[in-house]
Write a structure and sequence with these properties.
The chain has 320 residues and is an alpha/beta fold. The protein is built from ten helices and eleven strands. It is globular and about 60 Å long.
């Protein structure tokens, strides 16, 4: 027991979103959480959508998993997903705007389902599925992920403990220096650590921060900002983010699509630091595919709890 010495950072306690130890795994990253869920299901292969971050497939390849791929249509429905009975399926809650009912309907068509809620931290776990969550897309933590589902805690004792404090300084630098310059370089160090790490138990630092987060405020602000962004930009948006949206959604971003290749640069020049997601697909997908189109044009508009109407109006003015 340590007593005395200097005073460390203090956080509130008891607020962790997912509590307990049964049917829950706390891990270091979303990509590792997907592999863990696949491992718990004991399947021979896993189907991923092409429209997905390449860090997921790369991690699965590193773990020698057998990976298959499927396309999605403009309504984010699988169109060539035909798994065998012993194969797992990854279904993604894109942008966090897919309702619980929508994801349940998709999951009901398959046997061994992993719901990727990396973009939907507050999406209720679907019974009978493995549900994966990524914390750092919603809360200021260096890493961290959850797997919720039957026997999710299996194999946890085999994993080493993650230590994230060595590369977490970017979170403090952001407060004093903003997100450019030395802060950006510090964040890249953290991203590099995550990219090279194996699956590990969630760090104590991450869990401590998550245990003190104000999730009620977080949900309220994100929903309010998303709905205001819809009011401001909905008529211009080539995508309909409200199609499957419901009261149980807490989105990660407002996905905005305008067929303007210059728009991203305009936003970056005005310090709206978002980019096209998964642009690697522009080199892998056919130009007439939905994956190519959405990767080329979608801009995830920031709607998180730090901001409000003023910032969204500023972004809208830039878009014009």
């Amino acid at each position: 027991m340590e007593i005395g010495s200097f005073i460390e950072l203090e956080f509130s306690k008891g607020n962790e979103l997912f509590k307990g130890e049964k049917n829950i795994a706390r891990l270091n990253s979303g990509r590792a959480a997907i592999w863990h869920a696949f491992r718990v299901l004991v399947c021979t292969a896993i189907w991923l959508p092409y429209y997905q971050c390449d860090t997921v497939r790369n991690f699965l390849y590193r773990k020698k998993a057998r990976v298959k791929f499927y396309h999605i249509d403009a309504s984010f429905r699988p169109i060539d997903l035909i798994p065998d009975a012993d194969e797992a399926v990854l279904l993604v809650n894109y942008y966090g705007v897919m309702s619980h009912q929508r994801m349940k309907e998709l999951a009901s068509k398959y046997e061994n389902v992993i719901i990727d809620n990396s973009q939907a931290l507050f999406h209720p776990p679907i019974k009978g599925c493995m549900n994966v969550y990524s914390a750092r897309k919603f809360v200021g933590v260096p890493d961290g992920a959850y797997v919720i589902g039957m026997d999710a805690e299996k194999y946890i004792d085999e994993y080493e403990q993650c230590h994230s404090s060595d590369t977490s300084l970017f979170l403090l630098k952001r407060i004093e220096y903003g997100c450019e310059g030395k802060t950006y370089q510090a964040r890249l160090e953290n991203e590099g650590r995550i990219d090279t790490e194996d699956i590990m138990k969630m760090s104590k630092l991450t869990r401590t921060i998550l245990d003190g987060a104000d999730y009620e405020l977080l949900c309220k602000k994100r929903r309010k900002n998303f709905e205001y962004a819809s009011e401001l930009l909905g008529k211009k948006n080539r995508l309909d983010p409200l199609k499957y949206y419901s009261d149980d959604c807490v989105p990660m971003v407002y996905p905005f699509v305008l067929e303007d290749d210059d728009l991203l640069k305009k936003l970056l020049d005005k310090k709206h630091f978002q980019g096209h997601w998964w642009s690697y697909l522009l080199h892998e997908m056919a130009e007439d595919s939905f994956e190519y189109w959405i990767s080329r044009y979608v801009i995830p508009i920031t709607i998180d709890q730090r901001y409000g109407e003023k910032e969204l109006e500023y972004i809208t003015d830039i878009i014009g």
